[in-house]
Amino acid sequence: MARRSDDEIISTRLRMPAGLHRLLTATAKKNNRSLNSEILWCIAHQLGGEAPKMVEQLAVEQRRVMKKVLQAITANPEKAAELIAKLDKDFQGDA
User: Fold this and answer.
1) Where are the alpha helices (H) located in 1-95, listed in sequence order?
2) Which 8-state DSSP code applies to residue 32?
3) Domain boundaries, the chain
4) Of 6, 13, 32, 45, which is least surrounded by CB within 10 A?
């Protein structure tokens, strides 16, 4: 099996005690991060080395994509409303 690149995003499940989940959720909210981003931040800073830089690069890319999306929405709000309505319809079909 081919080795994945260091910047490839993978999905994994994580089990943790409910109390730790509550603590991480509260900390994420305080730091204005998602729970996933908070967990990545904690792990990266515990590991040290290149790990914090990798997490920061991911955050920068997420902000760049979000900015691009918001610019597209504000440039054409009518088209954005159409796309949102289509997404809502598509998601209702999945429920």
Assistant:
1) 18-30, 35-47, 51-75, 77-94
2) T
3) 18-94
4) 13
pLDDT above 60 (res 69): yes
Tell me the pLDDT band of 35, cut-offs 50, 70 and 90: very high
Model-level pTM greater than 0.70?
no
Between residues 3 and 75, the one the model is more confident about:
75
Q: What is the pLDDT of residue 10?
A: 86
Task: Tell me the CA distances in angstroms from 73 to 37, 56, 62, 82, one per residue in order.
Answer: 25, 26, 17, 11
How far is residue 25's CA from residue 23's CA, in Å, rounded to a whole number?
5
CA proximity to 71, closest of 81, 80, 58, 60: 80
> How far is Cα 37 from Cα 30, in angstroms, rounded to an integer?
12
